[in-house]
Amino acid sequence: MQTALPVQRKATRPRADALRNRERIVTAAREMFVEHGPDVPLDEIARRAGVGNATVYRNFPDRDALVREVVCSVMDRTTAAAEAALAETGDAFEALERFVHATADERISALCPMVQSTFDQHHPDLEASRLRCEQLVVALMDRAKAAGQLRTDVGVGDVMIAIAQLSRPPAGTPCFRVDDFVHRHLQLFLDGLRAPARSALPGTALTMEDLRKA
Fold first, then answer.
1. E strand or H helix at 174
2. How far apart are CA 177 and CA 182, in angstroms?
3. How far apart are CA 106 and CA 94, in angstroms?
């Protein structure tokens, strides 16, 4: 007598509309966290995303889960931008410029207050995304330095903190209203990174570890 083998069931995949709703929630949350901070009411996020409150809670059981998803999604897209820039074979500094502008569009400025005050900074999902991104940005900057195009007295922390500071709109100001100014001011900053340096910088080059300890 043969023992019947268990029937293999295919894993249920989320429906396309469910995935779209989740993406809309994360996008709306990212924008509102940038504009108003991480304590913005979840029903306001649902309203901007065009979904009901129940849809938000079905995807994210609590605020920490939503914040973590926003942070990791921003980190993942920032990593993708760094990978694309590193894969370019042309001008090394121009590749760095494209990465900086792409990162500003991801609203990375929202990460700082959320990571510091809202949830576990050492969550494995966040740690993995952060480490991969930092390694790629260091490689991108090292290539520009090796080409003699990037001043040698700056570190990855200098670049990332400038992106965060320059891409964050004033409190209560919608993201889209400051986009033109963000890229204008970022380009001014990037021009200051070009070698040869025109002045000596105070202090030492910042690492991401320096920023975490600050």
1. none
2. 10
3. 19
Residue at token pair 């965060």? 164
Given a contact cutoff of 8 angstroms between Cβ atoms, the answer to whether 186 and 167 are in contact is yes
Contact 155, 207 (CB under 8 A): yes
The pLDDT tens digits for 157-187 are 999 888 888 877 655 555 555 566 788 889 9
User: Distance between CA atoms of 66 and 89, rounded to whole angstroms?
Assistant: 37
Measured from the Cβ of residue 27, the count of other Cβ atoms closer than 10 Å reads 16
Q: What is the dihedral of CA 134, 208, 159, 192, to 10 degrees?
A: -130
As a whole number of angstroms, the distance between CA 178 and CA 151 comes to 28
Q: What is the mean pLDDT of residues 5-16?
A: 55
pLDDT reading at 121 higher than 90:
no
Quick one: CA dihedral 24, 26, 31, 37, positive or negative? positive
pTM score of the predicted model = 0.74
- 137 near 160, Cβ under 8 Å? yes
> 67 near 59, Cβ under 8 Å?
no
Select from 172, 50, 40 the least CA-distant residue to 114. 40
Percent of the chain with pLDDT over 70: 80
The mean pLDDT value for 119-143 works out to 84
Q: How many Å apart are CA 79 and CA 49, to the nearest integer?
A: 25
DSSP element (H, E) containing 11: none
